[in-house]
Amino acid sequence: MEDQSCSSVEIDDFDSYDHNSPWALDIGGTLIKLVYFSREDGCLENSFGNSVRLEEVGLETSSKNYPILDGKLHFKKFQTSKINECLDFIESKLLQGSCCRHQEVSGKKKLIIKATGGGAYKYADLFKEKFGVTFDKEDEMNSLVSGANFLLKAVPCEAFTYMEGRKDFVQINSSDLFPYLLVNIGSGISMIKVVGDGKFERVSGTSLGGGTLLGLGMLLTKCQSFDDLLEMSHKGDNRNIDMLVSDIYGSDYSKIGLSARTIASSFGKVIFDNKELKDYKKEDIARSLLRMISNNLAQIAYLIAMWHGKLKRIIFGGSFTRSHEYIMETISDGVEYWSKGETKAMFLRHEGFLGALGAFKSYEKHGLGSLMGHHLSEQSPVASPRPQLEQKSNGPLLVESTDAESVGCCILGSDTMKRT
């Protein structure tokens, strides 16, 4: 069992960002993920209209020649189908003068935003026409891996397992991080074998992803969004639709290790019911869809991990799970079953922002500052909803927000501590 302590972690390096407040976008088929730095104090209003406290990360300067940055790193998301909401949000920030990086091109200043994902190409002209903004496109796979590696190395209690209703944080030693399989669940799914910083290979994937779940969900339940579908699933019972082992054998099939509640055929009961779609509860359909996609994802991920070097660490990223307990439980059960308990599924608290964070982090390749991460430490995020800040002799303190949807950081020098 890996170290469960979440008291401290070392960062090798993390270049920070200048006063031009750079932004980064990951525009996927279903969601737009946005990361931006600001010098504003206070709280960020999240997608639901609530003000929330933001995570604060103290970074110690490696040289007195560089300024101490004081601000926050914000994470926000929008539905791609409602891209105008994202455009409106960015426009409001442009009016405040807190968006984008200016770059000199042929004697003229040009607004630049780092962008990744398919939408970085699809919507480039839209952003240019509306704001005069040019996308500096970053490779999608490289951004995903860069974002994941940073979170796993730099943020205590980022990774966790979820079994039998219990979340256990896993502290991974950065020297023992690689190799691992990153399963990024977006509209479709990419499976990436990561063997080091900047060293990875997309070894497989499947079209059965979040887009499949939402697409079928919209057809069968008339849900309006992914979150609507998840909410429906809370109240559903897949046993009304799925054919179980007990439906075939009358009990379990212990000889080959199948319990009575194991799904033998997703949606299998429908073929015998002689009912129309309107006769089924949409909540039951949502639950069955969720179980079907999650079960198959767990099996495919485990088989790919074994095929490519018997990888014992499988990390699930992307916006699919949304910290939804039933999804995580189903994936975990699947990996546990197929590996005979030798491998555990791991999840990330900031799962949906890997690509955006990786694209944002790519600013460091262009010499934007030189802040070196020193010691980051935190109180356990489950100990209290809002731990108190305190100065530590070996460096600043990392204080976690309990809301992973609205995370940010405050970048400070070693001789400064911000209180909120």
UniProtKB/TrEMBL annotation:
<dbReference type="InterPro" id="IPR043129">
    <property type="entry name" value="ATPase_NBD"/>
</dbReference>
<dbReference type="Pfam" id="PF03630">
    <property type="entry name" value="Fumble"/>
</dbReference>
<dbReference type="GO" id="GO:0015937">
    <property type="term" value="P:coenzyme A biosynthetic process"/>
</dbReference>
<keyword id="KW-0067">ATP-binding</keyword>
<protein>
    <submittedName>
        <fullName>Pantothenate kinase 1 isoform X1</fullName>
    </submittedName>
</protein>
<dbReference type="GO" id="GO:0005634">
    <property type="term" value="C:nucleus"/>
</dbReference>
<dbReference type="GO" id="GO:0005524">
    <property type="term" value="F:ATP binding"/>
</dbReference>
<dbReference type="InterPro" id="IPR004567">
    <property type="entry name" value="Type_II_PanK"/>
</dbReference>
<dbReference type="GO" id="GO:0005829">
    <property type="term" value="C:cytosol"/>
</dbReference>
<keyword id="KW-0173">Coenzyme A biosynthesis</keyword>
<keyword id="KW-0418">Kinase</keyword>
<keyword id="KW-0547">Nucleotide-binding</keyword>
<keyword id="KW-0808">Transferase</keyword>
<dbReference type="GO" id="GO:0004594">
    <property type="term" value="F:pantothenate kinase activity"/>
</dbReference>
